[in-house]
Amino acid sequence: MCGITGWISFDRDLAREHKVLDAMTETMACRGPDARGTWVDRHAALGHRRLAVIDLPGGLQPMTVRTDAGAVTLVYSGEVYNFAELRDELTRQGKRFRTSSDTEVVLQGYLHWGPAVAERLNGMYAFAIWDGRDQKLVMIRDRMGIKPLYYYRTPDGVLFGSEQKAILAHPLAKRVVDADGLREAFSYTFTPGHAIWADMRQVEPGTIVTVDVTGVRERTYWRLETRPHADDAGTSVGRVRELLDDIVRRQLVADVPRCLLLSGGLDSGALTALAAAHLGAGQVRTFAVDFMGQAENFRPDDLRDTPDTPFIQDVVRHVGTEHADIVLDPKTLADPGIRRAVALARDLPVGTGDMDLSLYLLFKAIRGKSTVALSGEAADEIFGGYRHMHIPQIQTARAFPWIAVNVGPFDKDSTGLDPHLLTRLDLDAYRLDAYDTAIAEVGRLDGDDDFEHRMRIMIHLHVTRFMKYLLDRKDRMSMAVGLEVRVPYCDHRLVEYVYNTPWSMKTHDGREKSLLRGATRQLLPDSVAWRPKSPYPSTQDPYYSQELQNQGKDLLADRDHDVFALVDRDWLEGATKRDPAAVDRLTRLGLERVLDLAAWLDIYRPELKLP
What we know:
This protein is of the alpha/beta class. The chain contains 25 helices and 19 strands.
């Protein structure tokens, strides 16, 4: 896992531009604390920060192979889980390897297959190759979009980076957020390719972007497609188990300490049990996040019926893991310095409040003991685990489901924002256009009835949009502390197979996530196998709400702060005067939104082009 960046310019000689390249590269020091490297040619400058996971002494980057026609140089972030098989295949084709790293396999694979190497890779990756033979840059992103990659066109080439901040460190990149950027930030539509910043784009998942003197071209090498499913329910459950066994086995490979994130739910519990089956009893380390006093004082709300702790303990006892709870106190959680660190990691003006803060602190604590962690992220999107997926009114709504339900951090009412700005942005129209565009991508089989097609749309929206946000959140919070988080449920083979199973199979036992439960139930305690979906935890301590209010008052005292171009000052003043013990979900969400925006504005100082 690493951070990559670069500058391609066809009209100037970059040989003397080391200072600019160094500045871009150093913005991602947290992503790669183990090593740094740069490489400069006449028209290409590439930078890399390394987090060493495979082949610690080898695998240094940028990595170059010199040919008679020119140098081919790679900067790469991520992991390829089938690199051993690909290396064997390339060796049989006459390729010779100097290291045992997956990085060299990707580079030699490109030399042998060209950009089509992407279609052979199983893993999470974002990489850029400067091909001196043809004077072109090739950028490739994994199928699910697990690893981020952005680019920014310049008059004579492009800038690129794993994070927006790497691009924004270049003097040619303008720090502008226009009306469409604000619409994307506040609408929660998660449009593929959108980067919030004007003139900046993400390389879309499953996409190859080629840059040469003639311009920029994109080619999709993978997309989520609708296909017939011939297997019956029993065979489908068996196939899911086979895939999960293979996926977990591959993703446990590392030359550094590894662990699993354990939440007490079916998703993380299943991965933990599968890991123990591969590694043996007592060889699995697990971590969970908790809040001081939460287990004793938990109150059910509209998202969570039960605390996680009892279910986590059931898995630990059943599987036999070496477990640690990372218990966070409300003072640390409310620390403005932590909020600023999270805003810096995220690059964006939107977040999920204390769930981002606690995830960052969890990963920071884990990093002291492990370098790699496996996470249950994405199982709900793939297997149909969210509660709102099973509500008839949400199933038929002409809206993104996570917005239609209007529960949790994706508040469609945009609490705390300036109402006049919201009127000008017209988020409802933006959301509707984005929704109609998204569902047009979903293929329909001849045998699908209306309900089956609606549920296929439901899964497609979550996999191609909502999951995009969650994966980016997990990448940013983990890489901010130099922790590599792997997401086994995002293996494209599993995603393709489960996506095309009928909805009736996804709910064949009368519950959500039937396929996953059927595949792993025998490995888990009944309490966890049958536990209803419970989202990532959130603190219920009134001290946290009180600190939000105190920080809101401090912000109000700075009457000239840029945040008030976006925020409703009167609303903020009223919100800070409420009894902290009685602050409701929407008020707290609005306070978090305002403070997140203020932190982001303080860090990046963008030019806001308001409608």
